[in-house]
Amino acid sequence: MLSMALLNHMPIKKIITKKTVKKVVKEEKPAIEEKIITEKKPSVIAQDLQPLEDKIFIDNENINVDDIVFDTKKKYFEAVGRRKNATARVRLYTQNKKGITVNNKPYQDYFKTENLQKVIISPLEKLKCQEKFGFEIKVNGGGIMGQAGAVRHAISRVLILLNPYFKKRLKKSGYLTRDSRMRERKKPGLNRARRAPQWSKR
Known about the structure:
Elements: H1 2-9, E1 77-83, E2 86-93, E3 99-102, E4 105-106, H2 107-110, H3 114-127, E5 134-140, H4 144-162, H5 167-173
Parallel strand pairs: 3-5
Antiparallel strand pairs: 1-2, 2-5, 3-4
Helix pairs in contact: 3-4
């Protein structure tokens, strides 16, 4: 009992914990003067003047082939075109020769139908340069349709060798793409690739 009475009369010390609050002071960065720097673009440097022999004009829709000065050091430009099983080798002459010969014949005599003749001339019509150059073509393999496609492919390729700026229009027309379609092989038990023998009921 005495111990309880003593505890009641004893002074109680209150422990107060002070919370330390840290003040975050934002440091003001020194104002940086914004300087507008105007970079001077280098002036367009004119290309070195090339000799007339190597001069090639930029492609445009109203190009005049007569104004193009070709490399006279080369006797001819040569390219190979393919379609199905046919292969065509074309030589393009810029001087002293005109017209198109296929296997030593005029192309009208070799490809007798009008549709095939249009297929061959189509790259030249696209560039508006018919009868401006001479073409010697050797073609072999495949049938007459495949040979016409191979000649068109070869003529388109050789025109790019003559002037690389022709590529844009020829590629847009699809003349530079090697057509990979081929005749499907015959299957055993069928007459052709898909053609089955006639079925008889009795």
